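for the recovery benchmark. tokens below, seq after
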């Protein structure tokens, strides 16, 4: 079972043996009240950051989904390569993570709302500038850097908020919140294609930017923290945490699971094309993945609250691995690929679904923002380069299994991640047992 909020740090003298480092949470979260308003606000933020990002990052053709499929099919950037598109797609997400120390410090000094509203504005500007891009470097700046930075400023401060409001329902609250990315992915995947067909590519970017700016700004203004009670440290780069074995295990889980996440998410649509599925079938697979995200995450949150956050995170990570090997690897038709899309949609984003509650279990509410900042930084390399690696590992000449090596990479990454989470669970269980013997 998960470590409850009543537990406090315990220090033993030199004759008392080991020193458990159970997190101390200084106040009993209300498990509701205005916290549900914050859940709705965070749901909206996920919808208009991660959800929109699904449109620009999920691999509809080679890298970018709806927008980039249009660029590729119309040869808008003749001097660009698939590696360029992969790097832009990676930067779009990784830039949001690498600025975590800066965002954490700004949040500490000025509260969560200022960086979140600023991020909403930057995201809108990035989309509008992308609508005017005629050279590939302009797309790097607008779609890769600006949109990514804007998403980081808006999304990152929201992650620690819900853990301050919820204890027994912490994973449920986070599950509902992160389901917004699936809802946003569904809405924008269909709406963006419709806007491109009926208005223009440029105006689809502009409309998306305006909508994201307005909705994220409104959600940010509704966010309320409980820092006056929790008193979080909010260090941008806390080196003292890096000396802890449990923190290193969490960061190793983060790194490994993120490799699998990027490879699966960014490869699925192009994999569907490679096995002969039609464009509409490939689009349906992506829609089913988003549907699985929207429907599955709240249910998983409830299960996590009941049976333990570390335990459920480890099991979900293992399910991701088994799904890659048992379903995705042998998939050769639409039905099996669609089933994989639904299943993987529910569990492939296990990191985003569980990182808030799991990090709270490891470090407590006081150190949560500092640990999250480290976690975001760890995701930079896999988010930036895993898609590029997957593209390089493809074997188009292998007609039977062109995605064999990316599939193996994803499955093995989740195996390593599940082993890290299993060890983390063992460590925290021993700490809990040590406390109970006192």
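predicted aa per position
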């Amino acid at each position: 079972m998960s470590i409850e909020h009543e537990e406090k740090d315990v220090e033993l003298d030199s004759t008392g043996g080991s020193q458990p480092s159970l997190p101390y949470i200084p106040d009993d979260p209300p498990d509701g009240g205005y916290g549900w308003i914050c859940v709705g606000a965070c749901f909206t933020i996920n919808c208009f950051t991660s959800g929109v990002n699904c449109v620009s990052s999920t691999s509809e053709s080679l890298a970018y989904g709806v927008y980039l499929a249009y660029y590729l099919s119309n040869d808008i950037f003749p001097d660009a390569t698939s590696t360029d598109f992969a790097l832009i797609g990676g930067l779009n997400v990784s830039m949001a993570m690498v600025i975590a120390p800066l965002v954490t410090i700004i949040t500490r000094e000025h509260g969560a709302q200022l960086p979140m509203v600023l991020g909403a504005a930057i995201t809108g500007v990035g989309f509008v500038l992308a609508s005017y891009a005629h050279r590939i470097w302009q797309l790097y700046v607008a779609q890769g850097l600006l949109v990514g930075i804007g998403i980081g400023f808006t999304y990152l401060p929201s992650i620690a908020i819900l853990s301050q409001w919820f204890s027994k329902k912490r994973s449920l609250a986070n599950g509902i919140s992160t389901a917004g990315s699936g809802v946003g992915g569904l809405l924008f995947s269909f709406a963006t294609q419709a806007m491109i067909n009926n208005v223009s590519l440029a105006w689809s970017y502009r409309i998306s930017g305006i909508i994201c700016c307005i909705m994220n700004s409104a959600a940010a203004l509704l966010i309320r923290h409980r820092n006056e009670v929790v008193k979080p440290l909010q260090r941008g780069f806390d080196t003292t945490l890096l000396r802890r074995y449990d923190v290193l295990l969490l960061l190793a889980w983060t790194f490994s699971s993120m490799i699998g996440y990027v490879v699966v998410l960014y490869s699925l649509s192009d994999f569907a094309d490679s096995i002969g599925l039609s464009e509409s079938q490939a689009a349906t697979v992506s829609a089913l993945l988003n549907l699985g995200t929207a429907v599955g995450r709240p249910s998983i949150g409830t299960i996590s609250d009941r049976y333990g956050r570390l335990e459920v995170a480890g099991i979900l990570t293992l399910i991701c691995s088994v799904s890659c090997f048992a379903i995705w690897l042998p998939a050769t038709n639409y039905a099996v690929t669609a089933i994989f899309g639904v299943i993987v949609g529910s569990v492939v984003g296990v990191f985003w679904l569980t990182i808030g509650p799991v990090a709270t279990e490891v470090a407590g509410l006081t150190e949560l923002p500092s640990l999250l900042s480290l976690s975001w930084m760890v995701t930079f390399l896999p988010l930036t380069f895993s898609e590029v690696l997957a593209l390089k590992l493809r074997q188009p000449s292998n007609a039977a299994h062109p995605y064999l090596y990316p599939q193996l990479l994803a499955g093995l990454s989740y195996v390593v991640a599940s082993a890290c989470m299993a060890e983390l669970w063992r460590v925290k269980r021993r700490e809990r047992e040590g406390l109970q013997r006192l």
